[in-house]
Amino acid sequence: MIKAVIFDMDGVLIDTEKYYIQLGMDITKEMGYEIPREVFLSMRSLNRKFSKPMLLEKYGEDFDFEYFHAERRKRLRAILESRGIEKKPGVDEVLSILKREGLQTAVATATDMERASSYLSQIGVLEKFDRILSVSNVKNGKPMPDVYLEACRQLEKEPSECIAVEDSPVGVRSAYAAGLRVVMVPDLTQPEEEIQPFLSGVAQRLPEVAEYAKIL
């Protein structure tokens, strides 16, 4: 029986992944690299502990990851300050349904706690969640299961009693490794064949997650 739903943030609750991808391509091009969009898509939700060695292995030890990381964060901040945080369609609706059904909710994000809390506050949903968990709370970020296991611990629920809502393969793997049932809400890409075995379902609209909570 499902007792809680745990959401990823970027790409699920807020529309920010498109900026991460485009900025990644723009900045690395300025650095002299032609890195395909697919590389940055594969890095969604990937903690820097894992993304840094991946880029260094692909593009050499001379790749200035620290500059890249800092510059992308700086430019993203400027974009969000200018345009505001875009809430994904259906967020308020699905949270209202889940509350009405008596399910607990949490956020498990690769973003640090300060920014995660700020973003969720700006879209008016921070207080609607029972717990907010970020990479700041755990030893290892996604794709390791730590953040989902900690969310379950704080909610006092077994992983098997929880649904994870993710938009990226990295996040799907993280939640599945923690023992949660995973529903994917595609954002920039549709689910790849290799992660299909990890999914309990694919929701084309966020409110469909409430239906999965009833049937899983």
TrEMBL record:
SUPFAM superfamilies given in the database record: HAD-like
CDD domains per UniProt: HAD_BPGM-like
Pfam families: HAD_2
Coiled coil: none
InterPro entries xref list: HAD-like_sf, HAD-SF_hydro_IA, HAD_2, HAD_sf, PGP-like_dom2
NCBIfam families attached to this UniProt entry: HAD-SF-IA-v3
Protein name: HAD family phosphatase
Species, as recorded: Maccoyibacter intestinihominis
